[in-house]
Amino acid sequence: MAQGSKQFLILDDEESIRQSIAAFMEDEGYNVFQAETSEDALEIVKNNHIDQALVDIRLPGVDGNTFMVEAAKINPGMTFVVHTGSADYIPPAAVRALGVTSASVLIKPALDLTTLVSALNKQDEIP
Known about the structure:
This protein is of the alpha/beta class. The protein has a single domain, classed as Response regulator (Rossmann fold, 3-Layer(aba) Sandwich), CATH 3.40.50. Helix content is 39%, strand content 18%. The protein is built from five helices and five strands; from the N terminus they run βαβαβαβαβα. The chain has helices at residues 15-27, 38-47, 64-74, 93-96, 114-125, and strands spanning 7-11, 31-35, 52-55, 79-84, 105-107. A five-stranded parallel β-sheet has the order 2-1-3-4-5, with helices on both faces. Helix 3 links the parallel strand 3 (52-55) and strand 4. Helix 2 runs parallel beside helix 3 (64-74). It is globular, with a radius of gyration of 13 Å. It starts with 6 loop residues before the first strand and ends with a helix. The mean pLDDT is 88.
């Protein structure tokens, strides 16, 4: 299902993962931004109205949890899905307060990217 002109950010330090997900999301109708670090991603959020983000947790420098909290301060309506290699990841309280639940955590590699779109759609349904 095409999402029109939604602004989507991929924050992951692995270029091959970013490229693969970006190609899929563009095919789904999203306008895609990519960042390798939280610092770069925060600059994108400051300069663009990002609707949704896919966030890796373990990153060089600022981690994904901190990015989500800081990005939500800049753009309170932004929603997040976590994409992590940590099978035991549990969103901390500050991230749960942003609407991130276990249903919005995908374990790398997400082999079926339609699960990403489903998780994003569920995030959009949260009041």
